[in-house]
Each structure stands twice: as structure tokens, then as C-alpha cells.
Amino acid sequence: MDITYASSSLPDLVSSSASMSRTPLTSRPVKIIPLQHPYDSADAPLTSSSSSSSTTSFTRWRTKVKQMKTVDWIDFFLPCSRWIRSYNWRENLQPDVIAGVTVGVMLVPQSMSYAKLAGLQPIYGLYTGLVPVFVYSIFGSSRQLAVGPVALVSLLVSNVLGNFDSSSELYTELAILLSLMVGILECTMGLLRLGWIIRFISHSVISGFTTASAFVIALSQAKYFLGYDVDRSSQIIPLVKSIMSGADQFSWPPFVMGSFILAIILVMKHLGKTRKNLRFLRAGGPLTAVVLGTAFVKIFHPSSITLVGDIPQGLPPFSIPNDFSYVKSLIPTAFLITGVAILESVGIAKALAAKNGYELDSNQELFGLGVANICGSMFSSYPSTGSFSRSAVNHESGAKTGLSGIIMGIIMACALQFLTPLFEFIPQCALAAIVISAVIGLVDYDEAIFLWRVDKKDFFLWAVTFATTLFLGIEIGVLVGVGFSLAFVIHESANPHIAVLGRLPGTTVYRNIQQYPEAYTYNGIVIVRVDSPIYFANTSYIKDRLREYEIAVDQSSKRGPEVERIYFVILEMAPVTYVDSSAVQALKELYQEYTTRDIQIAISNPNKEVLLTLAKSGFIDQIGKEWCFVRVHDAVQVCLQHVPNPNDPPKVPDSSSSRFLERLGTQRNEDISASELESGQRDSVRSKDSDPHLEPLLSRKSH
């Protein structure tokens, strides 16, 4: 945009007022950038910001749909076609097969362990590790995410179904129904692109929740180590009481065996993480636990160690859930599991996609997880999602495409078809050791230390969620954590950051005077920046702060005429992305209030949508188009010309806007240079060669 020399707009204001100035104003012209008003262009119709934004979004979406070809539609519904078309058999086949076999061997024992955690028979964990894995490889957009049963979801299933007998057929049917509900919810949110809703849940809330859940999960597995039954609960106090009350029934053989297997798994995991040449040990831990436990049982036949027992052989039968009488009671857990899927699974998938150099649509990823759960529910699966540990192993093993997931599914199918007779002799304590070794990674104490050091508010969220989940249960813990998280969001939105700006010496840049103490302000002018949208929830707070700035005296150095009060308030609106009708009404009320005190409002750098809303509401016409500027500096220089001269006799404030403008127009009888305006002194000597009507207020060197 061209820089033009525009004279001050005050003479126009005075000439249009009811009473004319008695003395002509001879103030110097100011170099400003003209603001393009939306109603000055025939090509820019005056529409509301919300309708313009929605129309633009709809137009962009419709254009994109029209441009989509057949291949694009296939990629949209079958993301696997993207890597199938470009699959390099020589480079990708071997790492995909190795990764698939590695994670498949890890998945088989973990699936049985997580099924026991969910209160189900181990066979349903194997079913959950079969069909969803195949389906996700086709409909999922991540090429490294390993889908299947996970500890946290298994705990949620066990918690919501805690009032039912885990050995009953109804318990199993409800777990499968929950998988269908989660799948439908995930697909719906993916298709409607509603994944952004879960963003309101802070990561510190999820971290506190998973850390507390890890303790609950570990204690729930203690019964397999101790050799006696422990009450099932999602609260730590009942679990501890139950463990202590049955201490007289303690049996040392399962404790010793479980502890030994757990130690082996942890050592293998540590070596796999720290040494690249032993990376395969990380995935081999669960398989080693199962093999050692089974071998010990087959050799010594200990009577005090409980075994998994008979597991049906063969692939799962096809069946559709048909009992929907308990749907209403399962809805909260379905939402919670979906939230975990979005925050954890989609987050893992995005991180892996970035590491491997391809793009991933979170909503499409959510849709793929939903289809996997829906299809899984038709083959006796309970809810599944992406596993952090198995996905990490899959990535580290070199997985390049979704073929590794298909290999995992083949490994699981072979286990179901041929190996289930051997699973009968797996000790329960070995499966419990696998679960405990997995949930140890969920204890995120590093996050708590980081939050304490960086942000006490987020640490408070972490601590509250952790404590309530641990002592009051999963549902209450999540509700309290989410409630506090939303409360912080609302508080930050309703009490936005507002800064008083000052000019950095030697520049035309204006910054927060609290952050830049060297910045100076001008007498009679206050420059305020609102760092958020202005809407009904924060208008009252903003108005109160503006009144404070009018009265309070900042500690920054000041320049310009020595006046004792504020004559101009400049609103820097660059950070303001949106204003609603309540905000417009508040600005109008503020303008009327300022007018009674002879204060003029000026606005600087509003974006197009905000300017459209202010123009349509009549606010721009109310304050005058000449008080809208592109830059804060332009607004300051114009306002400086109209700040009253302290050497003139004091004027009695008048509530009439026209008399206020007339008084400002008669207060100057001689020109004031830029340096004189900043120092508050008049110049008695003027260059004969200078033309006051063409020279900018600031020299060219200052721009």
C-alpha cells in the first residue's frame, strides 16, 4: 500500500460540527497509511464476519470436493491405497515383515493380559487383537500405529461394568456393545470433523489421569501375585484395604514367580531402550514371560499357582450385538474412551507420521479407529485403540507401511488357530507381570516435575486430577479434571491479557511497557492492546481495565505536552480476531462515556472481519472513519496534534462532541514540530525553506 501525506482529519470534524472554530487550525500534516474501509470498495459487500467466514469455508470445501478425482475418493475412504500404490517391495517388505512379527509376538500375551484386566476371559483379548488390527490397516491413515487392547481402556471397561458379575454372559455382551458404541461415536466425530472438541481437555489432565490409573491397574493385579482374591475397585483405598485384610492368605510361590518374571521383563525393556543392538529385547519381554511361566508349570506342576485355563480354539464367530437396554449407562464411558483415543492414539499417530515424513488427518484417523471398533464388535471384540508401547516398538523395528499391521493380524490368527492349547498352562501371575510392566510407563512423574517448574497452574490441574482419580474413582477424577480445565479456559477467555503500549526509542514500534521498560508513552494518550477476541464474556473486564488505565499513572517515561489527563485512547486491535454484538455494544457505551469526559477513541489495525462487524454496527461511523488507522504510530501522530497545549488557559469540559472538537481546533495558533510535541516545548525558529503543509510530522529517518 502506498504511503501518502494526509493532513489531520480534525478540520473536517470541526467544520461538520454545529459550532465552527473561531481560530483556524494550522497543525502540521501527518504522514500516515490510509486504512481501506470495507464499505469503501464496491467489491467488498458489507456482511457479518461470521457469515463471511462460514461462506468462505463452505466455498473452499465445495471447491475441494469438485476438484477431487476418482483416485482422491479412493484415498479418502481407503487410506491404505496411498501406500499400496507406491509400495516398494525391495525396500519395504523386509522391515514391514520384521516389525509385524515383532509386534505380533508382543501382542499375543499382552492381549490376554489386558482382557483379564478388563474382567474378560483371555480369548476376548485375542479376538480384540485380530479383527480391529486388520480393519485399521485398511481404513487407518497411520502406517506405524499398532491398534489393539490397551491397559487404560481395559481399566475403563472393568470400571463401568463393575456392578455386573464378570463371569456372566451379560458382562461380555456389554463389553462388546461398548466397542460398537465407541466405534459409532468415533466415526461420527471423524466424519463431522469434531475432533477439536477434545482439545479443551488439557494434556496435564490426561497425564494426571493416566498416572493415577497406572497405580490402580497395578494394585488390581496384586491378587495374582499374592495368591488371594482382592476386591475389584477403581479407588486406591478400597484396594489397599482389601489387600491388607487378606494378608493372612498370602502365598509365596506366585509372588516369587511373578516378581521374577516382572524383573526379567523390566530388564529386557531397559536393555532394549538403551542399547540399539539389543532393541529386539524390548518386544520379546512379554513372550519371554509367557514361555518361562509355561515351561515352569509344565515341568513342576505347582498347585498353588493359578493358570489361565481352557481357551477356545479357532477364529471368532460373526455376531452383531443385539441387546441395547444398557446403552444409556454406557454412554459416559464411550465418550471417555473416545477422548482417550483422540488424545493418545491420534497424538501418537501424528508424531509417528511426522517422524516418517507423511501427512495425517486426525479426523480421518479417528474415522479409521471407529471402523475398526465397529467391525471388531461384530467379532466379539471389546474397545480397542492405539497402543503407545506397541506403536513405539513397531516404529523402532522399521515399519514402513500398514503391511506390518496385516502381519500382526496374521500372527494373531495363527495363535488363535494353532496355539491356544498351549495357552492353557500360562500362569496368571505371568500375565499380571506383563500388565504391571506396561503400566509402569504410564507413571508420568517427569511431566509433573516439568509442570511444577514451568507452569504452576498446569501442575495444579495435574495434581487435582491425579488425586481425585486415585481416591475418588475414574469417572469423578476425569470430571473434576475436565471441569477445572474448562474453568481455566473460561477464566483466561473472560479475563484476557491487556497491555499498555509504549514507543521503543528510535523506532515507530510500540510494545508492552511492562515487557520493555525503555518504551516511553505520550502525555494525554493511552495506547491499549487487547490480546484476545472481544465477546460477551470479557467485555465487562475490558471496560473496567480501560477505566483503570485512564486513571492510573504508569511508571514509564513520558513525552509530549505536559497535560494532566487523558484525551485520547487508542485501541490496538491486531490481536482481536473476533468481536460479537455484545462487544460492539460495549464499545459504543464506552465511546459515549468517553465523550462526556472529552476523550476520543481511535482504533488501530483491525482485521477485515472485525472491521466489517464494527462497520455494520455503526461504530465506525460513530467514532468517525478518520479515527481508524493502519498503524499505532499513525494514530499516535494524529492524536499528538490534537492534545491541548499546556500553556493555553484551561477549558471547562463540555459534554457536547461538537464543542469538544471546536475547542481542540482553537487551541493551536502556531505549528509544533515532532520533536517539540515529544518534549512539550514550542519552537521559536522555523526553517524558511520548509512548507508546513507538505512536511511529515516525523522525519523520514524515523520511518
UniProtKB/TrEMBL annotation:
CDD domains: STAS_SulP_like_sulfate_transporter (cd07042)
UniProt entry keywords in alphabetical sequence: Membrane, Transmembrane, Transmembrane helix, Transport
Region (Disordered), start-end ranges: 644-703
Domain of life the protein comes from: Eukaryota
Family annotation (Gene3D superfamilies): STAS domain (3.30.750.24)
Annotated Basic and acidic residues bias: 679-694
STAS domain boundaries: 515-639
Primary location recorded for the protein, binned into one broad class: membrane
One of the Pfam families matching this protein, by short name: STAS
Regions that span the bilayer: 121-139, 146-164, 170-192, 204-226, 250-268, 280-300, 330-353, 402-423, 430-453, 459-490
A GO-annotated cellular component: membrane
Membrane topology: Multi-pass membrane protein
This protein's name: STAS domain-containing protein
